[in-house]
Design goal:
By secondary structure, the protein is mainly alpha-helical. The protein is built from 13 helices and no strands. It is globular. Helix 5 (about 85-90) packs across helix 6 (about 95-120) and helix 10 (about 195-220) packs across helix 13. Helix content is about 85%, strand content about 0%. It has helices at about 5-25, 25-35, 35-60, 65-75, 85-90, 95-120, 130-155, 155-185, 185-190, 195-220, 225-235, 240-250, 250-285. The protein has a single domain, classed as Na+/H+ antiporter like fold (Up-down Bundle). The N and C termini lie far apart (about 50 Å).
Length: about 290
């Protein structure tokens, strides 16, 4: 389980990241998104249709233990993370679409995440109780900083831009601290974690990337927009998953449940770096047309 210091760091990280995301938003962003809803709709289908189903299928196919399977399903049902916005920028994707998708999935997660977790976990035939009410409460609380960030932007663009930069850097530093400290303290647990858990994480990551990209291409989106949907689908808001685990589940099972989202958080950064390099190399000579 995370120490009290790490739990405080996680709470602070989520607050700062969501505050920074809110500081990037204005009513114009939502208006722009509504003018081209196709990308967002495909992203929502990928996020809440494919990812939870894929997580469930992977957990069944690999025979993952109940607590690990629940964690994987929760990660698959989690909305897109703000990290996707950063990788979208570096991969020459569409940043406005990425931000719009992150916000849309975050808002939809209030209903979709507990609904999907409840449906798929009940199909595992497990006796473990999933506290859906606490999950909903945690998601609502996490979205409050987004509203505060938007309010700050409405008052001052300059302050909002500063807050956005600080939030991104600060969030990356804290998640790096959490991962490093957990790895050092729980190295034995990570070493004992079966290869199937690491395989499950990799399959969910790349499954999201591949589906997001190719379903976008098949439905007529440009390569630039398809890269955006791809990253937004594969990069999940694992800090939110961890916060839900800590606030909703008994302390006795938290350590076992935290391992998978922490592995996902570390893996997704590495996988996204490789994918970003690939996308940048292929975007040099491509011509993006519809």
């Amino acid at each position: 389980m995370l120490s009290s210091t790490e739990q405080a760091g996680l709470a602070l990280m989520i607050f700062v990241l969501m505050l920074g995301m809110g500081a990037t938003l204005s009513p114009k962003d939502f208006a722009l998104a509504l003018k081209r809803p196709k990308g967002i709709l495909i992203g929502m289908l990928s996020q809440f249709g494919v990812m939870p189903l894929l997580a469930f299928a992977i957990s069944k196919a690999l025979g993952l233990p109940d607590l690990v399977a629940i964690s994987l399903i929760m990660v698959g049902s989690t909305p897109g993370g703000t990290t996707s916005n950063l990788f979208t920028y570096f991969s020459r994707g569409d940043l406005s679409l990425s931000i719009s998708m992150t916000v849309a999935s975050s808002l939809a997660s209030i209903v979709m995440m507990p609904l999907l977790v409840g449906i798929y976990v009940s199909s595992l035939d497990t006796a473990i109780n999933v506290p859906l009410g606490k999950i909903i409460a945690t998601i609502i609380i996490v979205l409050i900083p987004v509203c505060i960030g938007m309010l700050i932007r409405s008052k001052s663009e300059k302050k909002a831009k500063t807050l956005e930069k600080v939030g991104s850097v600060f969030g990356i530093l804290i998640i790096a601290f959490l991962i490093i400290s957990f790895v050092f303290r729980e190295f034995g647990l990570l070493r004992e974690t079966g290869v199937m858990v690491y395989l499950g994480v990799a399959l969910l990551c790349f499954g999201g990337f591949l589906f997001g990209y190719w379903v976008s291409r098949f439905t007529g989106l440009s390569r630039k927009l398809s890269r955006t949907v791809s990253l937004e689908t594969g990069i999940q808001n694992t800090p939110l998953t961890m916060a839900i685990i800590l606030s909703s589940f008994p302390e006795a099972v938290q350590a076992q449940m935290m391992v998978l989202p922490l592995i996902y958080a570390l893996s997704i950064v590495l996988y996204s770096c490789f994918l970003t390099v690939f996308y940048r190399s292929t975007s040099v000579s491509e011509i993006d047309i519809a």
